[in-house]
Amino acid sequence: MSRSKTPSKSTTKLSWQTMESMVKQNHHLVRSQQELIESLLARINRTEQQLNKANQKIRSLQHGLAISHLRGETTVFHMHSFLAHKAAVTCIGWLGDLLMTASSDKSFKVWEQSTDGAWTEINHIRGHTAGLSLIQRAGDLIMTASGDLTVKLWDPRLSWRCVGTLESHDKSVVSSACYVRVPTKLLVTGDRQGIMCVHDEKGGFTLVLTRNTKAGGILSMELLHPKSKFLVTAHNSGCIKVWDCIDFLEVRKIQVNKKELPIHRIKMWRHLLVSAGGDKQVQFWDTSTWTCVASGIGHSKSIYDICTTSVSTCLSGVPEEELQALKNAEGSTTETDAEVASMLATVGADGQILFWDPLSMVKHQQQKRNTEAMMHVKSVKTPRKKDKPQIITSGVFSPDGAVLVLADRAAHVHVFGGFASIYLNDTKEEKEKNVGGNVAVLGEEEEKDNKEATVVVEESEDRKEAKEETSGFDSGKGRRK
User: Contact at 8 Å (CB) between 235 and 219?
Assistant: First the structure.
């Protein structure tokens, strides 16, 4: 019997030339799409750089606008004062919206502001056997230093229970401290004899290193950036020293004043380091060259504290893995109104609050003809008792920059307001609206670029279909196979 032949499926054979041309076309298509993607990424990078530069200019303009409003007569005003302790208030600080005050009465208190503006005591903590000289945050804990030569650690999450006592300094009172996060979490303390002790948090704040600074008492400590490895110390011999937080070796020494008057406080203001002390001057230091780029006068007695709403933009000593992220975030819209305005004030023994304009001061000193130091832009007096100036021991802006809180030796706390009207930046809703508008514009441009890419793809698909139609013919004979 004859078997019926099943019809075989027709197969289309492609010549080597045809396949080679198709591969070339696909390669060309992929390359064109890659070039398009690279051009889009380059445009995005250029746009981000332009946006950062524009934000930096806006920040400078907003700072100048804030300074111009600050010059008004009724801008900053005294809100109220209250008796905080039985003895002098030596140091104050913030824990979120809570105000902390340390006193020479051997205790510290925690205050909360009510809706009517009054401050209510919610915690009164005792534990030291001598007056307190320092209170500040140390990671999730609060540290206090006292004349009993001890440093105590308190946990606000455990009803302000004392979770540790450090007895590293056995000869002098701890007068300054700093919490270091890079390269590891450390608590650095300095006393009035110039001894610096380093405690490791992972080991329960055990003492891992002791260093003699050989420059007299350490009155203040400051990191160049919260993520920097460089620590700056101010001494009562009138000098500033820079330390490497890896092995705590001295990197640089700067003699601030020739008379060796004490430097009571140092603070970072954007990319500048600010110092003030017994010479009654405010000095600004360029952290890249460590030269004094500006100085200001106005106080009649020693300066004890520097208050600012600015954040540090100095990236010296920041690890490489975090450096690029910080550079991209510089001048971003995530800064608060207070940080953009970057207010700067100094307080001291004369009871005066002096406000400064660092940018104008730096520009002023860049002119070689200007050899004299600039004056402050505004002066505010603290309330006096029996016509005697109050000696201000400490001062700090609130986290949102709305109020300035000062402490004095008469056991009082003074609250000044009016700063919210100085900033005059966009509200949170307006910022979100502006960001949404920018995203919409970028979305339209991206959609346009996608359409262009789609046209390229469609054209390549048409070429492919035409090639498939002609691939069924023998190119040599010109007939159907």
Answer: yes
Amino acid of residue 180: V
Q: Which two tokens stand for residue 212?
A: 């003699």
CB-based burial, 138-177: b 16+ in 10 Å, e otherwise:
beebbbbbbbbbbbbbbebeeebeeebebebbeebbbbbb
Chain CA centroid to CA 151, Å: 27
Tokens 């104050």 sit at which residue? 92
Is the distance from CB of 394 to CB of 315 less than 8 angstroms? Answer: no
Q: Is the pLDDT of residue 104 over 90?
A: yes
Q: At what angle do helices 16-70 and 358-366 cross, to 10 degrees?
A: 90
Q: What is the DSSP letter of 335?
A: S
Model confidence at 330, in pLDDT bands (50, 70, 90)?
low
The CA distances from residue 73 to 308, 358, 378, in Å, are: 21, 20, 9
Mention every residue, 6+ apart, whose C-beta is less than 8 A from residue 281.
Answer: 257, 295, 296, 297, 299, 303, 373
Residue located via tokens 């019997």: 1
The answer to whether the CB of 306 falls within 8 A of the CB of 260 is no
Q: Which pLDDT tens digit goes with each residue over 433-465?
A: 444 544 444 455 555 555 544 444 444 444 444
Tell me the C-alpha to C-alpha distance, in Å, between residue 57 and each of 54, 97, 196, 439: 5, 31, 40, 21
* The pLDDT of residue 171: 87
Residues ≥6 apart with Cβ < 8 Å to 110: 95, 98, 99, 100, 121, 122, 123, 124, 125, 156, 160
CA distance 92 to 94: 7
**Beta strands 303-308; 263-269: pairing state:** unpaired
- What pLDDT sits at residue 332? 54
Q: How far is CA 466 from the centre of its chain?
A: 61
pLDDT of residue 389: 72
- Segment 51-61 shows an average pLDDT of 81
Q: Please, which residues bridge with residue 92 across strands?
A: 101
From residue 292, alpha-carbon distances to 129, 221, 287 in Å are 42, 19, 9
Q: 283, 357, 279: which is closest to 69 by C-alpha?
A: 357
**% residues pLDDT > 70 (the chain):** 82
Quick count: other Cβ atoms within 10 Å of Cβ 53? Answer: 11
Rounded distance between C-alpha atoms, residue 93 and residue 100, angstroms? 5
Taking 60 as the threshold, does the pLDDT of residue 51 lie above it?
yes
Strands (E), 326-468: 344-348, 352-355, 374-375, 378-381, 392-397, 404-408, 412-417
Q: What average pLDDT does the segment 207-218 reach?
A: 95
